[in-house]
Amino acid sequence: MKKTDEISLLEVLVKTSYLTQITDPENRELDKPVGYGSGFIVDYDGMKFFVTADHNVHFDDYGATEQRTWKDYVVSIFNNYTDPNNFLSTGITPLGGFYSMEQFHLDKPVEMSRPLDVSVCKMKPINFQLPFLTDRVDFTGESIEGGEPKLTISKDCFEEPSLNELYFVFGKIKVDLVDNIRITWENTLKESLQFVDQVGDFLLFNTPHEITDKLEWAGLSGSPVMSDKGRCVGVLCDVLEGSHAIWVMPISRVKTLIEVAIQQEAQDEKRNSEKGESQT
After folding, report:
1. What is the C-alpha R_g of the chain?
2. pTM value?
3. Cα-Cα end-to-end distance for the chain
4. Band of pLDDT at residue 63, cut at 50, 70 and 90
5. Beta strands of 55-129 (E only): which ranges?
6. DSSP letter string over 169-224?
7. How far apart are CA 68 and CA 62, in angstroms?
8. What value, to the nearest 5°, has the Cα angle with vertex 257 and ends 251 and 260?
């Protein structure tokens, strides 16, 4: 597989994609996942943000009506870290405080807004108490060892898609909790995706082969879509069974949402500081 500037493309793909589980907010033990997804960590001017598809966070908002229910599910990242005193355990890092986007029709003000399928949250020091590590990944001709540190994606690696490049997605599908003890999955690499056009809010990519089973993609929502040069062009959101179509949220939307989150976090910090001073 092609190499980027320093490491192979497969290593970039494996180390920048993070498996997540989704649990109901009332499930405080985080032991009854209702679904699984993916995401990635962006290093943005020294701050870390976790990026995923919004339907992983707002599980109930993407039915027929696509309207907000304002119920935030808990997204937790699998650390792939095992407690040396308990080899049956695996660490997970729950996240919160996600920012999301809505779309309004200015020419139809009476219509309800609808969600855009991308969410980000600013990660805090508590989210890095456990390391984020790889599990072993084997593909023809190349392997990635388990226990290696995961990577973040710098904003300098954001890029608009090109008609002349090929794109890739790595992640885990068919994730299953067995006997409420261990997690099983299959690693998958989606190769040679071609950018077609921007359609509405999404980038349309085509797969080289028809998508005959959506389960072969289930769990990849939120994955970064990467060029063969290791550049991130967007967030995988959905695929259309019986076609070649996959739908990707542009990285420009991610950048906008992160910048909104930075401004909001700064305002909240200022407000809390002023409140603290007024109470002393």
Report:
1. 19
2. 0.92
3. 61
4. confident
5. 74-78, 92-94, 99-103, 114-122
6. EEEEEEEEEETTTEEEEEEEEEEEEEEEEEETTEEEEEEEEEE--GGGTTT-TTPE
7. 8
8. 145
